[in-house]
Amino acid sequence: MTGDGRAAANAATVLRTVLEHGPVARSGIVRLCGLSPAAVSRQTTGLLRSGLLRELPGPADGVGRPRIPLDLHTGAVGGPVAAGLHIGVPASTFSLVDLRGRLLARRAFSHEGRSPAGLAADIAAELARFLAESDTGRPRLGVGAALGGWIRPDEGVVVHHPVLRWRQKPLGAELSAAVGLPVRVDNHARAVARAEILFGRPEARRSLVHLFIGNVVDAAFGIEGTVHQGPGSAAGDVAHLPVPGSRTRCACGRTGCLEATASDTVLGAEAVRRGIVPDPSVGMLVDAAATGDPRADRLLRERARAVGRAAALLLDVFNPAIMVVTELSSVLHEGYLEEIRGAATEFSHVGDDPARIVVPHAGPAVLPEAAATVLLSRVFQDPFGTL
Predict the structure, then answer these.
(1) CA of 286: how far to CAs of 116, 171, 385, in Å?
(2) How many CB atoms lie within 10 A of CB 76?
(3) Residue 300: what pLDDT?
(4) How far is CA 301 from CA 6, 55, 306, 318, 336, in A?
(5) In this structure, is residue 122 part of a structural domain?
(6) Res 6: pLDDT
(7) CB count, 10 Å around CB of 71?
(8) What is the domain extent for residue 127?
(9) How far apart are CA 338 and CA 203, in angstroms?
(10) What CA–CA distance (Å, rounded) separates 245 from 261?
């Protein structure tokens, strides 16, 4: 690359190096990232001026010029933040995170009683209130929004969300107009994958598959730090991935599709049918299991094994360094993760190491962090261009 393209790539390299190794002196950045001392000096100067990096106080390192450590600017005074918006089916979640993805503030917003036609406007208004009430004077880089379905992130358009019944919705523009900040929108499975690459386990930077199990079921694949989107950003639709052994009828006319077998919508309805909980809420079902209800525990383990059988197919196709599964019961209780691991390794031909299957590093904060990472991932890819 030449000109601005090379400068942008160098700035991203320096910022990612500090993310991974900071606090680190300029000489350490040179050694770690392979850029010349002059290039590192230029980029660190720009990143300091932009507020993304800061110099930390430290003693001189030996004789001669002191090595001043640099780190991401996460300080309470002046450290920039990114806002996150995860749009689920029963509720949305608003968040603020710092440059290391650490959660600073969070609020839930119920969708109960709201029509799909007016839901986006209601969410935007509540997001604006959240941002105003949580404003501490720190610079705000913008908003990252994540939701299920088919999303074109470069346009900020929800092509199709089957549950919310949104089609060709310019969600990014609508949110930006309401809050007065840049907004980036992406699918929540890709958002979690990017959060794992940026802030999670080192193996995720080599290759990962992420399987998201909620009311909408999605997946994402990343290799060498890049999440695949495919033509039209349509990659990741695994709703009709066949689950070995499932006999559940799907609206598509087939049997055994993953979303029809294991989604939160299906699980909640089944929990009500069995008389375990009064409302179709997976959260209530998980709580019932935690308080000792064997029926709830049995149903959650059934779902976990179905998810594991589907995960086995993805393991065989992609053979990633790590597979991340976002599924509520396994995020909260390791026993259900073990059920997923057991079924996956039993049915997979190559996934013989259950430790490769993990839950998101952020645990219960996965969606608030991932939503903000939709924006932060762009900052770490092109710091000056994004700002």
Answers:
(1) 27, 32, 44
(2) 10
(3) 98
(4) 50, 50, 9, 25, 6
(5) yes
(6) 86
(7) 18
(8) 81-192+367-386
(9) 20
(10) 10
344 and 240 in one domain? yes
Burial of 113 (0-12, 13-18, 19+ CB in 10 A): exposed
The beta-carbon contacts of 288-292 under 8 Å, at least 24 apart in sequence, are: 289/329, 289/333, 290/332, 290/333
Residue 176: closest CA among 156, 160, 190: 156
Tokens representing 368 are 């608030």
Q: Which long-range contacts (CB under 8 A, 24 or more apart) does 43-48 make?
A: 43/7, 43/10, 43/11, 43/13, 43/14, 44/14, 44/70, 46/11, 46/383, 46/384, 47/11, 47/14, 47/15, 47/383
Question: Residue 212's domain is classified under what CATH number?
Answer: 3.30.420.40
pLDDT value of position 2? 47
DSSP for residue 242: B
Task: Give CA–CA dist 181/82, Å, rounded.
Answer: 10
What pLDDT is recorded for position 64?
Answer: 46
pLDDT in tens, 288-325: 999 999 999 999 999 999 999 999 999 999 999 999 99
CA–CA gap between residue 376 and residue 370 (Å, rounded): 9
Q: Please tell me whether residues 47 and 89 are part of one structural domain.
A: no
Query: What is the number of structural domains in the chain?
Result: 3
User: In residues, how long is the chain?
Assistant: 387
Q: Are residues 222 and 303 in the same domain?
A: yes
Q: Which residues of the chain have pLDDT under 50?
A: 1-2, 60, 64
Boundary (domain end) residue, out of 21, 47, 72:
72
**What pLDDT shows up at residue 351?**
84
Q: How far is CA 54 from CA 78, 115, 371, 387, in A?
A: 10, 46, 25, 16
Question: What pLDDT score was predicted for residue 386?
Answer: 81
What gap in Å lies between CA 157 and CA 174, rounded to an integer? 10
What does the alpha-carbon distance between residue 82 and residue 270 come to, in Å, rounded to a whole number? Answer: 38
What is the C-alpha separation between 335 and 113, in angstroms, rounded?
A: 35
What pLDDT does 295 receive? 97
Q: Rounded to an integer, what distance in angstroms lies between the CA atom of residue 379 and that of residue 205?
A: 17
pLDDT value at residue 1: 46
Residues 215 and 352 grouped into a single domain: yes
CA atoms within 13 A on the CB side of 106: 16
